[in-house]
Every structure is written in structure tokens, then in C-alpha cells.
Amino acid sequence: MELKIQTLSFKHCLFFFTFQVVVAFFFFSATFQGKVKPDDIFVTDVPSKPEEPVKIILLWTWPFGTAFPLNQCPSQFDGTGCFFTVNRSLYSEAAAVVLHSRDVCSSKNQLPQMQRPPNQYWIWFTMESPSHNPNTGFMEKLINLTMTYRADSDIFTPYGWLERHDGTENVSIPEKTKLVAWVVSNWNPNSRRVKYYGELKNHLAVDVFGNQRLPLPREKHIETLSKYKFYLAFENSIHEDYITEKLWHNALASWAVPVVLGPTRANYERFLPPDAFIHVDDFPTAKGLADYLHALDKDDNRHKQYFYWRRSLKPVAPARLNSHYCKVCKAIKEAPSYRTVPSITNWFK
Predict the structure, then answer these.
(1) To bridge 279 with a disulfide, which of 163, 225, 265, 343 should be the other Cys (CB 3.0-4.6 Å)?
(2) CA-CA-CA-CA torsion for 34, 40, 41, 44, nearest 10 degrees?
(3) Does the annotation count 235 as an active-site position?
């Protein structure tokens, strides 16, 4: 019995050996005749295309000392191929260094002091207006790219924008029980907005929130402002494209019609439909504006016309600065020929 099993095993081995020889013969014959390509067999031996080196983007400081998640770009901003960091030890390897103006403006010593690597981009970033950006003179001939709310910046970072939607968005206006609100923290009696308010309040009741005025808890910001039909989106200084969160967040997020004081109506219309806001310059006097708002308050149909644009558009106001920084990645990958901005002071005014 045992001998029989061994005999059978030998026969089986002989059979499989013969079978393998035959298969090998036909396989290599086909290869020789060009029917099977060597790359089909040894595909793992073909070297893959090397990936582009990761571009390091160094945030020289957290803006105003406020940290936020890095390397977590929103879906609409492509952050692939870039690595964001605040680790200054990576300075010599960084493709770009982002300098937040207000955090480095007090002294040139706050800028990087190490030898600058060839073709490293220094990016000047600010969301403040020229009126609140001091000491730009010592940055002359040091900056390669600008990153601001101005539309002509190398990296455009507006406070908000409009996006199209498919028409399924809910455009029902929240119930409004109050008339006009204004949130102000920087009360400068010599500013145009405070002077204008001084005239307006003689003809129109305005609820003013802010320092030493009506309290407005952060967690109830939008909930509170949503009760008002109109919001005074008055900018603290008047400059091209300087249209801030006062409009994009305070007014539009609370479904209040913005009453704007800032750049010209034509400038606003570069970013908003003409019937999305009311401009103080549309009226010769503050009393004229007050009379118009009182008339709208009594006419629901005319008031609703300021919301028709929402049937196809929705406002977007990023809550964090990471969306602005994420734009640096695309800008660096598509940057024009390396150059230096001659004068930040002359450009940003």
C-alpha cells in the first residue's frame, strides 16, 4: 500500500514537470515572436514618474496671533502639492513666506533676518485698509506677491463673494420686527461714518451695538441682527474694494438689506447686484436716506425686491483665514516670472 502511494506521487510529479516545460516553451516562443511584451511581465520594474516636490509655505506669524488648522483646505481651494507650516526652522526650504503686515509692521527686525534662498517668494498679506497699514516703507523691494482684498492683488482674498446655486436655496426672509441696526467697535468722531450717523439719527432710530452701547454677545450675533430690516454697513475708511465683513457677514448673513458707506456704488457693483444694497451716495442728504428707509418699511413688496438676487446667488463669507492662506498654494504653482514689487506704499493706497 505504501509503495503504491509513492509510485502515484512520482507519476504526478512527472506529469506536472512535463506540463510546465510545455507551457514555458509556448510562452517564451510567443515572447520571441512579439505576441507578449516584456513590459507586460516585468511591469513592476518600470520606474514610476517622479512626483513634483512639495512646496513649503511658511506662515511667518499667525495673523493677529490667531491659530487655525493648517493643511486642511476647503474643497474649492486646491492645497495639493503644498505643505503649510509655522515652523521657522523650515525657512531655508520654503518656496514662499507669508508676511502678515500688521504683525511685522513695527520694525524691519520682525521680518526674516536669515539669508534669503534664491527665488523664494515673500508674500505681503493684509485685510486692513491703507489707513490701517502703517510703516510699509521698509518693505520696499522686498515683496514678490501681494495678497489682499484688492481685486488687483496677485492673490485676491476678499471678505466675501457670491456663488451661483441651482435655485433650490431657501429664499424666505426671516421675520423682521425691528428697523435699523449698526455694530461699531472703533468709534472715531472724525470719521465720515460717525459724522453721517450723527445726521441720520435725527431722522431715523438706529440701534447701535458695540463698545459702551447695546451689548451683542458673539454667540447671538446673527440671531440678533436677523430681527432688523436694514443694517448700516459703514466702513471705517474709504478705499477701493474695501468691502468688509460688515456687509458680507453682518448684513447678508442676517438677511438685512445693507445700507453701505464705503467706496463708490460702481465699486460695490463689481461684486454685488445693484439691487442687493442701498448706497448712502444715492441720496443728497441723510434725511433723504431716512425717508427712503421709512417708505420701504411700510411697503413689503418694495422691501422684498432687495432679495430677488438670492434666487440664483448666495453670499459666502469665510469664517476662518485658512481659506485665504490656501489660495497661496495655487498662486505659487502658477506664479509668473519671479519679480519684486517696487513699492508696496505706492501700490497700496
Answers:
(1) 265
(2) 150
(3) no
Task: Report the number of distinct structural domains present in the chain.
Answer: 2
Catalytic residue among 128, 235, 240, 245: 128
Span 242-259, average pLDDT: 97
Residue ranges making up the domain that contains 90: 55-159+321-347
- Three-class HEC string of the chain: CHHHHHHHHHHHHHHHHHHHHHHHHHHHHHHHCCCCCHHHHCHHHCCCCCCCCCEEEEECCCHHHCCCCCCCCCCCCCCCCEEEECCHHHHHHCCEEEEEHHHHCCCHHHCCCCCCCCCCEEEEECCCCHHHCCCCHHHCCCCCEEEECCCCCCEECCCCEEEECCCCCCCCCCCCCEEEEEEECCCCCCCHHHHHHHHHCCCCCCEEEECCCECCCHHHHHHHHCCEEEEEEECCCCCCCCCCHHHHHHHHHHCCEEEEECCCHHHHCCCCCHHHCEEHHHCCCHHHHHHHHHHHHCCHHHHHHHHHHHHCEEEECCCCCHHHHHHHHHHHHCCCCCCCCCCHHHHCC
224 and 265 assigned to the same domain: yes
Across the range 127-150, mean pLDDT stands at 95
Amino acid at 304: K
Query: What is the domain-level CATH number for residue 194?
Result: 3.40.50.11660
Phi (first) and psi of residue 216, to 5 degrees: -145, 90
pLDDT (tens digit per residue) in 197-250:
999 999 999 999 998 789 999 899 999 999 999 999 999 999 999 999 999 999
Is 329 within a domain?
Answer: yes
Query: pLDDT at residue 10 above 50?
Result: no
pTM: 0.82
pLDDT at 4 over 50: no
